[in-house]
Amino acid sequence: MKTCDLIIAGGGPAGLAAAIAAKKSGVNDILILERDSILGGILNQCIHNGFGLHTFKEELTGPEYAARFLAEAQELGIECQTDSMVLDISPEKVVTVISPDNGLQKIQAKAIVLAMGCRERPRGALNIPGYRPAGIYTAGTAQRLVNMEGFMPGREVVILGSGDIGLIMARRMTLEGAHVQVVAELMPYSGGLKRNIVQCLNDFDIPLKLSHTVVDIKGKDRVEGITIAEVDEKGNPIPGTEEEHVCDTLLLSCGLIPENELSRGMGVDISPVTSGPVVDESFETNIPGVFACGNVLHVHDLVDYVSEEAGNAGRHAAQYILGSLPDKDSGKKILLKAEGGVRYTVPAALHPDRMDDKIKVRFRVGGVVKNCFISVYLGDERILHKKKQIVAPGEMEEVLLEKSRILAAPDVQEITVKLEVE
Question: Would you say the pTM of this structure is higher than 0.85?
Answer without folding.
Answer: yes
